[in-house]
Design brief:
Blueprint: H1 2-6, H2 12-22, H3 28-38, H4 45-56, H5 79-86
Length: about 100
């Protein structure tokens, strides 16, 4: 982190304030580890926080495919039975 502060001497004070805000969400170790890994000394603390948050976020879980019918239709399929399985009702199908 020391190297990050000394990279641009004119911005040292603003970088210190920015890193203090980053310390509300991350540890010093996490920030130092991120800086060592990516070597992005030119970024502002706000940009570092955004990139660290993007790495921390998780992608949503994959959805199961629920659109495949339980009965496959071919030329021998009895469409009345197929209709009853897809849309069961008291009368025995959606066309009743």
């Amino acid at each position: 982190i020391r190297k990050y502060f000394m990279e641009q001497p004119k911005q040292t004070a603003s970088r210190i304030r920015g890193v203090q805000k980053l310390l509300e969400r991350y540890t010093v170790y996490e920030i130092a580890q991120w800086l060592d890994k990516y070597q992005r000394w030119d970024l502002t603390p706000h940009e570092i926080g955004v990139l660290m948050e993007a790495k921390r976020s998780e992608y949503p879980a994959k959805w199961e495919e629920a659109y495949t019918p339980s009965v496959l239709v071919d030329y021998e399929t009895d469409l009345h039975v197929y209709d009853q399985r897809l849309c069961p009702s008291r009368e025995g199908g959606s066309r009743a």
